[in-house]
Design a protein that fits this description.
This protein has 140 residues and is an alpha/beta fold. The protein has a single domain, classed as Rossmann fold, CATH 3.40.50.1010. 47% of the residues lie in helices and 11% in strands. It has a five-stranded parallel sheet with strand order 3-2-1-4-5. Helix 6 links the parallel strand 4 and strand 5. The longest helix has 12 residues. The two termini are 14 Å apart. The mean pLDDT is 94.
Length: 140
């Protein structure tokens, strides 16, 4: 399944033991194929650098180089002036990529989830994603 991982899902999948770690395993198993664009990569870098996570610059670089770059397909979707989430314009990058690539956006962001029926791409919560993963066979 082609997916775009919102920052909250990615952080939870990489840094915490919990339900989201199944997303990380599904990426490693090939059940999920995550997409990334340059603005999303920058968002991941910025959030991973938050002091509250306690990651050094080296730790952040390692996560980007070893846990993201090898498994995420880099895409360059056309720029759009459409604003779907006025409260947090950075969310628009995730919606734009998912829409351009016919992917599903996996998010726990309340702004996105509140508008999910209005968005031009499918949106799943973590719980919905985990159910879909359980139903999908391992690739051969």
């Amino acid at each position: 399944m082609l997916v775009v991982l919102d920052t909250n899902i990615l952080i939870s999948a990489l840094l915490f033991r919990g339900a989201a770690s199944a997303v990380h395993q599904a990426v490693l198993d090939g059940r999920l194929m995550p997409l990334i664009s340059p603005p999303i990569l920058e968002e991941y870098r910025r959030v991973l650098s938050y002091e509250k996570f306690g990651l050094s610059h080296t730790d952040v670089r390692w996560l980007l180089d070893e846990e993201i770059a090898p498994f995420f397909r880099l895409r360059h979707p056309p720029m759009s002036d459409t604003r779907w989430i006025p409260e947090d314009p950075t969310d628009d990058h995730f919606i734009q990529l998912a829409t351009a690539e016919s992917a599903t956006l996996i998010s726990g962001d309340r702004h996105i989830l509140q508008r999910r029926q209005e968005l031009p791409c499918p949106v799943m919560t973590l719980s919905e994603c985990l159910s879909a993963i359980e139903k999908s066979p391992l690739p051969r």
